[in-house]
Amino acid sequence: MSDTSNELFELHWLFDMLHNIxxxxxxxxxxxxIQLWNSFMENHSGMSSITAKNxxxxxxxxxxxxxxxxxxxDHVVALRTPIFISWEQRPFLFSFKSYRPITGIAEKMFQNVxxxxxxHIDGSIKYVCLVxxxxxxxxxxxxxxxxxxxxxxIMSTTDDLTGLKNRNSLDKALEMVFESYKRAPTSAHxxxxxxxDLFKKINDxxxxxxxDLVLKEVSSILSSSSRKGDFVGRFGGEEFAIxxxxxxxxxxxxxxxxxxxxxxxxxxxxxxxxxxxxxxLGISQLNExxxxxxxxxxxxxxxxxxxxxxxxxxxLVYK
Length: 319
Ligand SMILES: Nc1nc2c(ncn2[C@@H]2O[C@H](COP(=O)(O)OP(=O)(O)OP(=O)(O)O)[C@@H](O)[C@H]2O)c(=O)[nH]1
Known about the structure:
By secondary structure, the protein is an alpha+beta fold. It has two domains: 3-143, PAS domain (Beta-Lactamase); 158-317, Alpha-Beta Plaits. The protein contains eleven helices and ten strands. The strands form two sheets. Strands 2-1-5-4-3 form a five-stranded antiparallel beta sheet. Strands 7-8-6-9-10 form a five-stranded mixed beta sheet, sandwiched between helices. Strand 1 and strand 2 form a beta hairpin. Helix 8 packs across helix 9. The protein is elongated and about 105 Å long. 29% of the residues are buried. The model has no long low-confidence stretch (mean pLDDT 93). Guanosine-5'-triphosphate (GTP) is lined by residues 161, 195-200, 203, 208, 211-212, 215, 237-238, 308, 312.
């Protein structure tokens, strides 16, 4: 076989491979008219290469952002350099359905796209090639991983029963506010310790499950009564801690009394009858004498203890 025949064969194989490769290949001229449309593009767009040939890409895909893509294509021709468009920047260029069996969660095919200039025999650039990679697996795996991480974060910072912040994240929040106050003791921050009154009796009389229901309903009052930036946590058992940044003790008292009244008016329904509950609260405003978070916490605890001593269902400010 002659050299020319060999070269022709090789060219034929190459063309066959490129036509059937599992990657999208499109060649456009400088009028954005399709010159090559391989089988990947045929299969996913439903349009044959014969129909596509010499048709403007933008008339075939009116959904494409023409202004944006034309700028990119012109850029590739003018600068003679390839560009890469990642799915993270733009999930897809061509709106193709995703058929990947293991990634059934993605409706559309995620794509990475490379646009490269094709130089003519005389060195001029008259065509560009778009290479479209299906990266749906990568994108959906990444999305699943991010969702799992978000879930893990929520689980590690939230109290299971009440959905409030847990003790661990409360400690971190207290430490953060305390440190920022030490650096710049300009704004007032208050800490509230709150404890349900005679909760043991509810457990004893109505059972632990109903006790849990009471804890949930109280927690829902606490979180719905708080502002953005407040930190409502379950300290343990039937005790709660509420961190009120940028709030002095007078404002904290108004806030606590609002909560106390709401809880006093709460009626929890149970098979054994309606349940009423009250709460006692202690407030401590952070000041320069507080040497650590523990000092601040124990002052709020002292105020809470005083509120219990004085007959419960009341708020006291540490003095
Ligand atoms: N249902 C339920 N009960 C809990 C939970 N955690 C702690 N408790 C109960 O809360 C009760 C707390 O009782 P005490 O510490 O004696 O306090 P109290 O009865 O609220 O009385 P005062 O605080 O003095 O008003 C105990 O019976 C605990 O078992 C919980 O997650 N669910």
